[in-house]
Amino acid sequence: MRAIQFSDYGSSDVLKLVEVGVPEPGPGQVRVAVRVAGVNPLDWKLRSGVMTELPLPRRPGLELAGVVDAVGESASFEVGDEVFGWSETGSYAEYALASLLTRKPEGMSWRDAAALPVAGATALRVLRQLELRKGEVLLLNGASGAVGRFAAQLAVELGATVIGTAGERRFADLRSLGATPVSYGAGLVERVREITSRVDAVFDAAGQNVLPEAIKLRGTTDRVITIADPRASELGVTFSSGGSGERSSELLDEIAERVVAGRLSVQHAWTYSLSEAAAAQDESATGHSGGKITLDVV
Question: DSSP labels for the chain?
């Protein structure tokens, strides 16, 4: 099968399209014929070696959507099931193994399905960790990104007031979602205080050293969560990593139900072919894609 993998850490140049053997599912696993793979910042951070060095060679890709092609012992899916979820062997490939999946709703596109496991589930998980409630004010850093845009919609659905940082070219989109946009960068505290006298919770989905200002606006580190700033512990802030212990098919089902019902929209930025994985990661690394980046594998 065709797959993208890297045998050295470095720039996107280390990504190579190679021919490798088709993996066989073990107990509880299924093999998925991948239709679409999601591209995430973690993909290029791992490739560059800036987060942690892992055994090589390595195949990138956390998110997949596709068709079950083979099943292992005790797997809860059947051959032919259309599914989406988290890949265990890297989703930048024609086939991948997975166990934490859910069935793709009829009528949901492959690209929408591949966009949900990381960004959609992360947004829902963190809002629940914040225990956000109706009538509260949420400061959302990175509101126009893949995670932030989902979080803005979910928070508005809860009945919260959302103040979201973004570039000015994303303001109209955020307003259409029911959020109040503000420019990021120097002077954030003053700009937010012109809008509200209080901030009940902070969701940092973008990093960019916003936590000190966010803590000042919140008045405490309580109910301040980041998924993007590795200095969280130094500042006394919770870092939500989204590790395997925080993933569930139930989260995927909840997000998918909202998408199908039209209560949650997915913003797509760019779609690349499998052979263009390097360009896709480079686009993700700019931080300005304005939506989900995916790879069409088939």
Answer: -EEEEBSS-SSGGG-EEEE-PPP---TT-EEEEEEEEEE-HHHHHHHHTSS----SSB---SEEEEEEEEE-TT-S--TT-EEEEE-SS-SSBSEEEESSEEEPPTT--HHHHHTIIIIIHHHHHHHHHHT--TT-EEEEETTTSHHHHHHHHHHHHHT-EEEEEE-GGGHHHHHHTT-EEEE-STTHHHHHHTT-S---EEEESS-TT-HHHHHHHHTSSTTEEESS-TTHHHHT-EE----GGG--HHHHHHHHHHHHHTSS---EEEEEEGGGHHHHHHHHHHT---SEEEEE--
Domain spanning 2-115+267-296: CATH superfamily: Medium-chain alcohol dehydrogenases, catalytic domain (3.90.180.10)
Q: Within the chain, which residue ranges are assigned CATH 3.40.50.720?
A: 119-239
Per-residue pLDDT for 243 more than 90?
A: no
Contact 113, 294 (CB under 8 A): no
What CATH architecture is 119-239? Answer: 3-Layer(aba) Sandwich (3.40)
- pLDDT greater than 80 at residue 77: yes
Taking 80 as the threshold, does the pLDDT of residue 86 lie above it? Answer: yes
pTM, rounded to two decimals: 0.91
- Location of each CATH 3.90.180.10 domain in the chain: 2-115+267-296
